[in-house]
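Task: sequence design from structure.
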């Protein structure tokens, strides 16, 4: 199971990287086409869709790599048992928040699909298509936060953090 979850976070990060290259491609194509006097409608919108996909798909990989910003001032001042309890509490709160985000991201995709919601730009893209990346990214992020919460409750310290160690 550990290998599967780590692979899931890695694939999600890889997909984020692909979408980041998509942002670059859309922006470069927009600049080049503008210089050539050709208008390609919707490139700005697609750059935005790719940017959103990049951000959401990178959440779990970034979290599991220990790269999210953490304020450890209070944790460092506590004894080891207090650090562990506060860390688990914070992770439980993060689970609740990410579960909520995951739920409403999925609901947004379903609502956009059922109402045939399309973008108002030149591209007229059905909005549920780019919103899928947000829903998938928040779902994988929720899995990552829940995974880390369970690991901490079992007494396993964060693998990629050198700031806080439980004794």
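Answer:
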């Amino acid at each position: 199971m550990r290998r599967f979850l780590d692979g899931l976070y890695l694939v999600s990060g890889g997909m984020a990287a692909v979408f980041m290259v998509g942002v670059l491609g859309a922006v470069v194509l927009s600049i080049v086409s503008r210089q050539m006097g050709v208008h390609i409608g919707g490139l700005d919108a697609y750059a935005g869709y790719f940017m959103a996909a990049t951000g959401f798909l990178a959440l779990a990989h970034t979290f599991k790599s220990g790269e999210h910003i953490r304020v450890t001032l209070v944790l460092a001042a506590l004894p080891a048992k207090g650090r562990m309890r506060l860390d688990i509490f914070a992770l439980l709160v993060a689970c609740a928040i990410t579960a909520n985000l995951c739920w409403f991201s999925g609901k947004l995709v379903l609502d956009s699909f059922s109402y045939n919601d399309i973008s108002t730009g030149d591209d007229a893209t059905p909005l549920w298509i780019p919103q899928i990346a947000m829903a998938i990214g928040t779902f994988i992020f929720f899995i990552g936060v829940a995974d880390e919460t369970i690991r901490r409750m079992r007494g396993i310290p964060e693998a990629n953090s050198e700031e806080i160690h439980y004794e």
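The chain has a mean pLDDT of 90.
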